[in-house]
Hints:
There is one protein chain. By secondary structure, this protein is α/β, with parallel strands linked by helices. It has three domains: 1-117 and 287-403, Isopropylmalate Dehydrogenase; 119-140 and 183-284, Isopropylmalate Dehydrogenase; 142-180, no CATH class. It contains 14 helices and 18 strands. The strands form five sheets. The protein has a ten-stranded mixed β-sheet with strand order 4-2-5-16-15-6-7-14-12-13, with helices on both faces. A two-stranded parallel sheet has the order 1-3. The protein has a two-stranded antiparallel sheet with strand order 8-11. It is globular. Magnesium ion binds next to helix 9.
Amino acid sequence: MDKIIMKTPLVEMDGDEMTRIIWKMIKDILLLPYIDLKTEYYDLGLEYRNETNDQVTIDSAEATKKYGVAVKCATITPNAARMTEYNLKEMWKSPNGTIRALLDGTVFRSPILVKGITPYIPSWTKPICIARHAYGDVYKNTEMVVEKGSKAELCVTNADGSESRDLIFDFKNSDGIIQGMHNLDSSISSFARACFNYALDQKLDLWFATKDTISKKYDHTFKDIFAEIFENEYKEKFDEAGIEYFYTLIDDAVARVIRSNGGYIWACKNYDGDVMSDMIATAFGSLAMMTSVLVSPDGIYEYEAAHGTVQRHYYKHLKGEETSTNSVATLFAWTGALRKRGELDDTPELCTFADKLEKATIDTIESGIMTGDLYLLSTLENKTKVNTEDFLKAVNEKLKELL
Ligand code: NAP
Ligand code: MG
């Protein structure tokens, strides 16, 4: 079989620990034998980030803007323990944060469903994809503890120097607390466009919800910006694609999500997305089966797994012990990126390969061959736990049948 030719390189962002090991295995076992893999390689492993004063992260994001599609391995976000472990010059920022800021992107997370792993809500037969607005609100707030007898006001100094004031509360009878937060029309608009674009890309309905009945200016602005952008830029495209944009109140949305069968994108404000993405991930079974894609408002895509570097397994691996780490989400990051590259470059062979590789992966698990995390959850009767590498080799056997 001739190897599939790629027209444009993928931006490849290598990472850390166990996922770095898996990264190479995926390439060696499942990609390089079949694809004339073209990538522009950036080593986001912590050692090289430290060596380049994190410039490599910025360079990889710039390359993503240039080429349009990237695939990223999980990376360490340094904390105090990592400062010593890696002898770091500085506590470098989260690469995901840096890349997200440079691309002005929104993260979409979707579970991969397989037979044998039943969601806690069994009626969820299709994935629920969560989009979290990752800017502002309570994550960039200012808070104060207020003493009895004080009066709290919101005060804005306008561009002309005049002041606009509004009473928050008169704390006559008790101590209390106050909180100030903000968001930006520009950020909300980017979020809205990323969501509408991704819904079109995936041919899925888009749901959005806020508490606009209570928050008549703050949340209502989110609702209005979404509605305006939808009417002006996306309504016709949604009609053509046969998909729907649906707005409702957040409490109504939660009730409908529980009753639904899945199969839509749920756009959430920052806090709602933080909470709901953990609920959705847990309910679908395993963080190791959750994919993640960062989408910019102008249609740039960066694919990755939602989980981290699986540190505990890496230390076992370093000691020479066998690991059974789940590579599915990382593998689906690759297939997502290859399929998108294929779509953009009009190389359907690449899209077909990505489809078949995903099918081979799911077929392998559904045939009973799986890593330890899924082995614990699966209700299949004939199931076998395999190690990290043997799982990928089993996927390769299935893939050969499909090609
Ligand atoms: P983690 O790497 O996601 O792992 C947490 C635990 O979840 C693991 O110890 C493992 O449980 C289980 N797990 C996660 N992925 C798995 C997989 N593929 N296969 C099998 N089990 C899996 O999170 P963490 O331990 O909190 O963080 C480790 C490092 O990852 C940190 O340095 C953090 O900064 C980084 N991180 C990076 C990203 C990213 O790059 N997007 C995201 C999150 C965290 P058991 O140990 O019980 O088997
Ligand atoms: Mg959370």
